[in-house]
Write a structure and sequence with these properties.
The structure is a single chain. The protein is of the alpha+beta class. The chain has one domain (3-79). Helices cover 51% and strands 12% of the residues. It is built from 3 helices and 2 strands; from the N terminus they run αββαα. A hairpin with a 2-residue loop joins strand 1 and strand 2. The longest helix has 22 residues, at 3-24. 17% of the residues are buried.
Length: 81
């Protein structure tokens, strides 16, 4: 597992959050929530609540591109430092 696989994991997490927002209309994702996403024909079980919580607590380490992806979902902490 190299950098590309962690990038792919990040992309899957963002996809799961986007799918959750589209369906639920908000980003109050329960920490234990698992979202099923289909990417390139494969199903992935994404722990969306853990993904969001972990990235929020580590937001200072996110790249500008990653912060932009969170901000595009409407996550307010992604636009502040």
């Amino acid at each position: 597992m190299g950098v590309s696989s962690s990038g792919t994991a990040f992309a899957r997490g963002i996809t799961a959050l986007a799918q959750f927002v589209q369906r639920e209309g908000h980003l109050k994702v329960p920490r234990q929530h698992t979202e099923t996403v289909v990417i390139d024909g494969q199903e992935h079980e994404i722990k969306a609540g853990v993904f969001l919580s972990n990235h929020k607590s580590r937001r200072a380490k996110l790249s500008p591109e990653q912060r932009e992806q969170f901000a595009a979902l409407g996550i307010d902490w992604a636009t502040t430092t």
